[in-house]
Design brief:
6 helices; about 140 residues; mainly alpha
Length: about 140
């Protein structure tokens, strides 16, 4: 059951234009798919929280530390001559500059800011720009 369906059943309309409508009765029958939908929503919310944490962590590394992008770029130049990197190379470069992130979190952050990117060919300049741009979109922990 969605929030809107719940409100429609339990609450009156905010601004009725005519006579008050009679509410439809609640369906008392057991919905066999409800447990599956609820479990899916729980997993979905956990993944959303993990994505928010990962993008916040990568944003903190790139936006709050002076000269860190230059240092990471220099590490990428040691790892490859191309303008693209892999998730493993991002993790290795972060370790070389004193930061660490789990590969799953790097993958989540990259796919959040660049959904159509190939994880074996990530253009790191575009990644830096996208993470820096999206840094203020996520609030800190509450």
């Amino acid at each position: 059951i969605s929030y809107n369906e719940f409100c429609d059943q339990m609450l009156d309309e905010d601004f009725p234009v005519g006579m008050m409508k009679a509410k439809a009765p609640l369906n008392p029958n057991y919905d066999v798919d409800y447990a599956d939908r609820a479990a899916y929503r729980v997993v979905e919310r956990q993944e959303t929280g993990a994505v928010r944490k990962a993008i916040r962590q990568l944003g903190d590394i790139l936006a709050k530390r002076d000269n860190i992008m230059f240092k990471i770029t220099r590490e990428f130049k040691h790892l490859t001559h191309e303008d693209v990197v892999t998730v493993a190379q991002i993790g290795q470069a972060l370790l070389q500059v004193g930061q660490s992130m789990e590969p799953e979190d790097i993958t989540r952050a990259v796919l959040h800011v660049m959904p159509d990117v190939d994880l074996e060919r990530i253009p790191y300049v575009a990644l830096f720009k996208a993470v820096k741009t999206s840094f203020h979109e996520f609030s800190s922990k509450r």
